[in-house]
Design goal:
alpha/beta, Rossmann fold, UDP-galactose 4-epimerase, domain 1, seven-stranded parallel sheet, two-stranded parallel ribbon, 9 helices, about 40% helix, binds uridine-5'-diphosphate
């Protein structure tokens, strides 16, 4: 089988490349490297079944070899990144989804769209089930990401309904792990970086907002299972263990034996007040549940950041 992964040199994309190679697939990682990083796939470069293609999936591309699976993971994915690249974020969610769906249609391939819990916006329903339509500000700073992903979901389902494409949609909830970018501005890299260096830990707002953090290998397992199922509605993938951002900061502080102080920074606009996946559907359809707890996941992630920071002179 040959599997095309857009955003294959990104954080989640690179873990998917590893997994599909381990399953014996030929893997093409397509990336334009605006937020992806060559380091993420360096260890795979000598694998005979792996190749990297430098391309922006928002632009058309043809493959002459047969593709069996298309996984569309290309997109800036942290609030800081999609504020820096608002137009590319909209383009990759809209045009990039269209191009990648077109590839899947031509090759009669399975298709999987990486959507997001951001489609629920600042949710008024808690925990979030797939049936909830969301509370999104379309013209806020996050709108470029949220609306692009909502459009991407609609387009994917249109391809399923009209072209009978074997399409799947996951909604990813705050996933973390090795190969997140140190400077992507998300809470996990920020807190770990700050705690390890003893820099002040930046809590946005009063820290009472909640998130539910999923370790990357758990997410990848859910993705792999859904791709081969006859199920086409969106599926939440995340870890329902919910925590406030303040408590989360304290957990990382403790694990790092940190000397950092906590400082308060303004809460970004439209920052969701709470987020927790209802994973009943994933349990039922995929027989899937996350396995790696926060302490274990954070230890592994911290070890990765520590090594990376030492290598680059940041520690
Ligand atoms: N956050 C924080 N300090 C930071 C970075 C983020 O308190 O240095 C908060 C942010 O306001 C949000 C949560 O942590 O409430 C998660 O933010 P992240 O950027 O990781 O992603 P989001 O879940 O908002 O998409």
């Amino acid at each position: 089988m040959r599997t095309l992964i857009t955003g294959g040199a990104g954080f989640i994309g690179s873990h998917l490349c590893e997994r599909f190679l381990a399953e014996g697939h030929d893997v093409i990682a397509l990336d334009n490297f605006i937020t992806g990083n060559r380091d993420n796939v360096e260890h795979l470069m000598s694998h005979p079944k792996f190749r990297v293609l430098v391309h922006d999936i928002s632009e058309p591309i043809e493959f002459h070899e047969l593709i069996d699976n298309v996984l569309h993971f290309a997109s800036p994915a942290s609030p800081v990144d999609y504020l820096e690249f608002p137009i590319q974020t909209m383009k990759v969610g809209a045009l990039g989804t269209h191009v990648s769906l077109g590839i899947a249609k031509k090759h009669k391939a399975r298709y999987l769209l990486a959507s997001t819990s951001e489609v629920y916006g600042d949710p008024l329903v808690h925990p979030q089930t797939e049936a909830y339509w969301g509370n999104v500000n379309p013209i806020g700073m996050r709108g470029v990401y949220d609306e692009a992903k909502r459009y991407a979901e609609a387009l994917t389902l249109a391809y399923y309904r009209q072209h009978k494409l074997d399409a799947h949609i996951i909604r990813i909830f705050n996933t973390y792990g090795e190969r997140m970018q140190l400077n992507d501005g998300r809470v996990v890299p920020n807190f770990i970086y700050q705690a390890l260096r003893g820099d002040p830990m930046t809590i946005y707002g009063d820290g009472s907002q909640t998130r539910s953090f999923c370790y990357v290998t758990d997410l990848v397992e859910g993705i792999y299972r859904l791709l081969f199922k006859d199920f086409h509605e969106p599926v939440n993938l995340g870890n329902p263990a919910e925590v406030t951002i303040k408590e989360f900061a304290e957990e990382i502080h403790k694990l790092a034996h940190s000397k950092s102080v906590y400082i308060s920074k303004p809460l970004p606009l439209d920052d969701p007040k709470m987020r927790k996946p209802d994973i009943a559907r994933a349990i039922e359809v995929l027989g899937w549940e996350p396995k790696v707890g926060r302490e274990e996941g954070l230890r592994r992630t911290m070890a990765y950041f520590q090594e990376k920071m030492q290598k680059t002179g940041k520690l």
